[in-house]
Amino acid sequence: MTEIPVGILGATGTVGQRFVQLLADHPWFKVTALAASERSAGQRYADACRWLLPAPMPDAARELVVRPIGSELDCRLIFSALPSKVAGPVEEEYAQAGHAVCSNAAAHRMDADVPLLIPEVNADHTALIHGQRERRGGNGFIVTSANCSTTQLALALKPLQDGFGLRALSVVTMQAISGAGYPGLPALDILGNVVPLISGEEEKMEREPLKLLGAMQGTRVIDASFVISAQCNRVPVRDGHTECVSIEFEHKPEIGDVVAALEGFRPPPEIADLPSSPAQPIHVLREPDRPQPMRDVETESGMAVTVGRVRPCPVHDVKFVVLGHNTLRGAAGGSIHSAELLVAQEWITSP
Ligand SMILES: NC(=O)c1ccc[n+]([C@@H]2O[C@H](COP(=O)([O-])OP(=O)(O)OC[C@H]3O[C@@H](n4cnc5c(N)ncnc54)[C@H](OP(=O)(O)O)[C@@H]3O)[C@@H](O)[C@H]2O)c1
After folding, report:
1. For ligand 1, atom 2: residue with the closest CA
2. Which atom of ligand 1 lies nearest, measured to the CA of 176?
3. Alpha-carbon gap, residue 60 to 253, rounded angstroms
4. Quick check: is 283 catalytic?
5. Which band of pLDDT confidence, cut at 50, 70 and 90, is reported for residue 351?
6. Dihedrals phi, psi of 338, to nearest 5 degrees
7. Does 185 contact ligand 1 (Cβ within 6 A)?
8. Hey, which of 43, 206, 256, 309 has its CA 20 to 30 A from 16?
């Protein structure tokens, strides 16, 4: 396949840097354009970006000159890592201009004709793109990734919904600092502390899984009907969101059935063969004190989620802990994975 040229909006940020890193050696995509705010525009990427990742900045990105958001970009596919308040109109303009836009921002996630996509969970929701193309004309479209704490939850819920039906669930999160972007929270607000508010996050966690696990019917998605209560906390962890989940099911499973459903979950070959797909999307750990962000967040290059402490719940039926990498599976990695699916389904074709 000829490599598909891609651009990154918000390339200097926390998620943007992950895109630059993950795309440096991608077999299908080649970064040709980087864009960020007026603060960065016009500078070499190496000068504009305060690189935060442990491995060096990829050479191919260093010399690219950062473009202003909104400028014409010579690429078919655009990954967006912009703040939501900026992303809404900008992503719409790029889609209008004929680009495929894969966004990490919240702005368009709940739009009725925009797929909120996790390839293993709802690959058929890409059919919504037909509606966007009719509305806008042309080939452009927007596809979104879920909120970072929602992605790992929805992945764990998928085999449980398929196997036993979901009635209600409660989730309490312990979310990493990198989830707040850069520079994020001042050190004095988070070191040795827990902040029991992440603005807007609980609302996202209570709505997005219903769309993700909803059913494609005709030209629209009918939301799933279970109910979610979310409580979100920021904790002094660098990367990785940990979530304590308890679930009430339609059909009560044994604990062993839940474990078997989680670790036996495999997507169809159309998805399993994508370059960014983990071999096993959900790993169940048997150690009584896992998963832990420091030990488990890089499982399968940060693209798999880890589950542990699966046990009976005296209030609901079953409870467990799930951990996922917020900037890999929960942002840039997940968005690249979605773009790979869009190529496999021929919504995006190579030049
Ligand atoms: N961090 C996570 O774990 C995570 C996970 C899932 C989804 N997300 C979502 O991904 C998006 C990016 O998050 P982030 O954590 O990477 O944020 P970030 O570290 O603050 O980076 C923001 C990026 O957007 C650019 N930008 C900021 N204001 C702008 C403006 N007014 N006009 C044009 N560009 C502007 C910045 O450019 P300059 O450097 O030039 O200022 C930077 O490249 C957000 O929508 C966020 O909700 C984040």
Report:
1. 179
2. 3
3. 51
4. no
5. confident
6. -60, -40
7. no
8. 206
Q: Annotated catalytic residue: which of 125, 241, 283, 325?
A: 241
pLDDT of residue 229: 98
- The tokens for 182 are 């850069």
- Residue 270 tokens, joined: 């159309």
Q: Ligand 1: distance of its center to the CA of 311 in Å? A: 38
Tell me which residue has its CA closest to atom 47 in ligand 1.
Answer: 105
pLDDT of 179-215, one tens digit each?
999 999 999 999 999 999 999 999 999 999 999 999 9
Of 148, 283, 325, 337, the catalytic one is 148
Model confidence pLDDT, tens digit, residues 8-47: 999 999 999 999 999 999 999 999 999 999 999 999 999 9
Closest CA to 73 of 99, 47, 55, 52: 99
Nearest residue by C-alpha to atom 15 in ligand 1: 181
Residues 231, 235, 239: CA angle, nearest 5 degrees:
110
The stretch 218-238 carries a mean pLDDT of 97
User: For the segment 92-140, what is each residue's pLDDT rounded down to a tens digit?
Assistant: 999 999 999 999 999 999 999 999 999 999 999 999 999 999 999 999 9
Beta strand 4-9 with 77-80: parallel, antiparallel or unpaired?
parallel
**Ligand 1 center to residue 344 CA distance, Å?**
28
**C-beta separation of 235 from 179 below 8 A:** no
Q: At what angle do helices 333-344 and 14-23 cross, to 10 degrees?
A: 50
* Ligand 1 centroid from CA 335, angstroms: 14
In angstroms, the Cα distances linking 106 to 80, 116, 146, 177, 204 are 11, 10, 8, 18, 9
Asked if residue 105 has its Cβ within 6 Å of ligand 1, the reply is yes
Check: CB of residue 204 under 8 Å from CB of residue 147: yes
Beta bridge partners of 229: 170
> 10 in ligand 1 pocket by Cβ < 6 Å?
yes
Minimal-distance CA residue to ligand 1 atom 17: 181
Answer yes or no: 148 catalytic. Answer: yes
State the Cα–Cα distance between residues 99 and 138, nearest whole angstrom: 9
Which is nearest to 19 in space by CA: 103, 99, 140?
103
pTM here? 0.98
